[in-house]
Amino acid sequence: MAGEKTNIISPAGFAALRAEYDLLFGDERPKLVEVISWAAGNGDRSENGDYIYGRKRLREIDRRLTFLARRMKAARVVDPAEQPDKDRIWFGATIELADDDDARRTVTLVGDDEADAGTGRIGWNSPLARSLRGAAVGDLRTVHLPAGPKEWEVMAVSYP
Fold it and tell me: Model-level pTM greater than 0.85?
């Protein structure tokens, strides 16, 4: 698709997208089409809950399949273990950070589709990840957040 950015993703993240696509396309969608066909054969469709819900759910599945197909097409799988410069922060790095109050935080830079801030997995295009790219241990980086700028010091960098 024109203008769509490359979707950097780990091998595990790509496998998860593929698994979701395969489940929806190969399992859920065919079952739903069968239910809709059965419900359509029951007569009046205007008050047929199975038919109405089935059509709505089918549209949701088709939208998700289209989204997943685009994300996989734009994907560039990068294995973090194969990063050439392991002294600096690049895709897949696990970083220990300290703020001004010496509060520590550990984050891992992952693809945007794999991000889960609650577990410390932050998307490659997030403000924090963008500010950390290329940094090494001891570097100070300022992150511009909605609440204002915050400075972090890189304490450690590691790769799987």
Answer: no
